[in-house]
Amino acid sequence: MAIPVIIDTDPGIDDALALMLAVASPELDLRAVTTVGGNTGLAHTTENALRLMHLLGRDDVPVAAGADVPLVRRDSAPDPNTHGEDGFGGVRLAPAPRGVDARSAVQLMVDVIEGSAEQVTLIALGPLTNVAVLIAAFPDVAAKLERIVLMGGGARVIGNMTPAAEFNIWYDPDAAARVFAAGIPVTMVGLDVTHFALTAPEDWDGLRGGGPVAQAVLGMVEFYTAYHLAMSGNPSTAQHDSLAVAAVIQPSLVTTRSLYVDVECAGALTRGMTVVDVDNVAKAAPNADVALEVDADAFNRLLVSRVVELDARLR
Predict the structure, then answer these.
(1) How high is the pLDDT of residue 203?
(2) Which of 24, 105, 174, 229 has the fewest CB atoms in 10 Å of its CB?
(3) How far apart are alpha carbons 192 and 226 in whole angstroms?
(4) What is the rounded distance in angstroms from the CA atom of residue 296 to the CA atom of residue 112?
């Protein structure tokens, strides 16, 4: 039986590929997409989600807009360098024939969770603001989730926003701290692991000459590759968000340990750092399954093959 999932996201190039992987995978039953301000701000992320679901032939999946700002802070800002001003690296997708769902992101989450005969998995690919609001406003509903699988943080001290913090957690650390403290099962797929979940430009050669999905992916990957080359000299791109989706599709792709995780909210140099007690120094009860390793080759094969198959199916 396919796993019912909600994807909370801020598309974003790697978010787009993650959504493609979800739609392409029979192991998942995508029930809703909710958007959060993050990579490019809520107006862009919501429009991007609508257009992307239209491209993928999934206008049946409701898309609802959520929080545009963090719970507490007002100094967080989108990072247009990584994904471009519009979030898709300048790739223009056709407008969707529908608008955003009239419900808020959190209300849509509630309706999907309450209306499902099976437990729902919430995959969070952006800042955790919407998820924290769900937990605070509807704790009994949130407790019905199978688990939350999130892309963010890291077990090792590594960052892409500051030396200590990954963007999603840095953007709204207060929300992240509340999610980890909520008592809901959490799987954390962090930056230290997703840095090994790479695709090279040539991995996408199977899409050349393909249909609209292929052209969108190739355009986004070209922009993403140029960014990675400028930043690190490496043309391979880290598919952060797709690894979180892949960990639901095929859990054996990542090796996890049950560990205690908290989030630094006050540190001047460490805001947004996920403090992971790998050695059980604090003697605190574990509150997350933390990804520590990835089978990078198997992940690469899964992501690329599923996207290629999706493009062929939708031509």
Answers:
(1) 97
(2) 229
(3) 21
(4) 32
* Angle (nearest 5°) at CA 123 between 274 and 94: 120
Rounded (10°) CA dihedral 200, 205, 209, 211: -60
Low-confidence ranges of the chain (pLDDT < 70): none
228 is a catalytic site residue: no
pLDDT of residue 303: 98
**pLDDT tens digits along 59-94:** 999 999 999 999 998 888 777 777 777 889 899 999
Does residue 50 sit in helix, strand or coil?
Answer: helix
Task: Determine the angle formed by the axes of helices 240-249 and 296-314, rounding to 10 degrees.
Answer: 90
Instruction: Give CA separation, 5 vs 113, 149, 182, 199, 211, in Å.
Output: 9, 10, 19, 25, 27
Q: Rounded CA gap, 260 and 277, in Å?
A: 5
> What does the pLDDT read at residue 39?
79
Nearest to 119 by CA among 160, 149, 154, 81: 149
**Choosing from 44, 83, 228, 240, which is the catalytic residue?**
240
| Burial of 310 per CB tally in 10 Å (0-12, 13-18, 19+) | buried
Whether the CA torsion 45, 313, 120, 277 is positive or negative: it is negative
Task: Say how far apart CA 302 and CA 68 lie, in whole Å.
Answer: 32
Quote the DSSP letter at residue 66: -
As a whole number of Å, the CA-based R_g of the chain is 18
**DSSP string over 220-288:** HHHHHHHHHHHHHS---EE-HHHHHHHHHH-GGGEEEEEE-EEE-SS-TTTTT-EEE-TT-SS-PPP-E
pLDDT at 230: 84
Give CA separation, 47 vs 12, 94, 134, 143, in Å: 11, 11, 22, 30
Are the beta carbons of 252 and 270 closer than 8 angstroms?
no
> Which residue type is seen at 304?
V
pLDDT tens digit sequence for 140-153:
999 999 999 999 99
